[in-house]
User: Fold these one by one.
Assistant:
Number 1:
Amino acid sequence: MAQEHDPSAEETGEETLSAADSPQLSEVDALREELGESKQRLLRTHADLENFRKRASRELENERRYAAIPLLRDLLPVADDIQRAIAAAEESEGESGLLEGFRLVAQQLDSVLKKHHCTEIPAAGEAFDPNLHEAISYLPSPDHEPNTVMQVTSKGYRLHDRVVRPSQVVVAAAMPQVDS
């Protein structure tokens, strides 16, 4: 089949297309569209992979950062017992060498906890915070503002920013109103 010759097309640089060239062009357009879609899928897949890598890295870092929590939960009652032994020895005035030994052990344990980013949660005199404190009792007190920690019965600890064990506390309640 012969192509039609258009002299005006030569001047503009355009060629006249015959009906036979039309299917080839539509096939080329379809391939271009498919290539564009494939490029978009590739970009999305690459972005998804990068997001996965970042998320996995964050999760691994958190896992490493907080891996010691079970050990700390088991170790903190031992620290409590050491403090109780020190308090009992101070009251009995018996073996001052034993008392001094327990104090040294307590200091060493505190320094090990701090070295591993396990710190005591401040509680005495602080405003009660249910995220950090566990109220075991509410007592009316004329000396403390309501909702203030009056007494700490068991120290709380956190690892980095995560609570390992909340402080067990006695919280001041508002004084009851006395009717005259």
Number 2:
Amino acid sequence: MTDPASAPPLRWHPAVEQPDPDEQTTIDGIIAGMTGESRIVARRERHAVRASHAKSTACVVGTLEVLPDLPPELAQGLFAAPRRFDVAVRFAQGPGETLGDRVSTHRGLSIKVFGAEGDRLPGHDVPVQDFVLATGTTFPAGTAAGFLSQAGRIGAATPMPEGVKSAVSSVMRNTNRLLEALGVRPSPTADFYGHPFGHPLAEAYFSQCPMRFGAHVAKLGAFPASAPQAALADWRLDPSSDQDGFRHAAVGYFGAEEAVFELRAQLWTKADSQPIEDASVEWPVAESPYRTVALIRLPRQDAYGPERVRYFDEVMTFRPAHSLEQHRPLGSIMRARLQVYRTLSRFRHEANSVRAESPLAIADIPA
């Protein structure tokens, strides 16, 4: 287990969040803008897709094993005692449209934990806990207001040809390579739009935003933790040869190997350098390292069977609002997501004439 933080964790209390007075107006603006973009994509693709992470690369099931003998500050909420939970996990590309893989942006990893008993957020009536993670430790637009201010630039890119989007993605990747060569910290925004062509199973994924962690507050990260995944560190996709290469790589991996991720918590220890409301600020690992609380095991399986993929992509949803009160999402971006995900999911399901379902167990998911 990672060495513990030098400072004790701060306590969660309702006042850790400080919403802007006009935040609801901002959220309404985000909903209107993203719904409009979803309509554009649905007309172009003749099918409504997720407004982010539309293109899945693997749809798998497995287990989450809470480690024994966790120290009290980590033995919180879902992780309060050693236990094995069933999970459904969806790996996906970042854009809210089904682009070819030459447009390599950030990646997503969504986890649905079954059998999560306890008080739940209002409107969430199924005993599951969802964690929605992505590559990158921070979210470029740190607040809902910041995201809305960028929405015009982001939305304007939606009608652009895929070749132009590929060129933009390449520029962003090269920007980060140059920064790294100069010894400068890479730009989270550049990585968001121009992520390297690495293997999806060799990536680490992060909550980016904080959440309640029982009596405390934390961010989460899922880190690859098996030898076969470590062997993929230098793997790179040639996008000119395979426009669905990430999917083929992930499906090929699961046909031969188990994937293991360490789920780690980064506890909130310093209010001044670890803000709750601004998700663009990285919490320094020197002040609070990521510490392992559970193992996610995803065994060998068919990771892209047609019935399962249809269920993951069309029927089932992953939302921050699917949460225990003990893991309530926190901060401006997360408060927006609680409403935005619900509205965009409703639009997608209604546009496709598909009834949304919230499975109660792995057995409800097609093989």
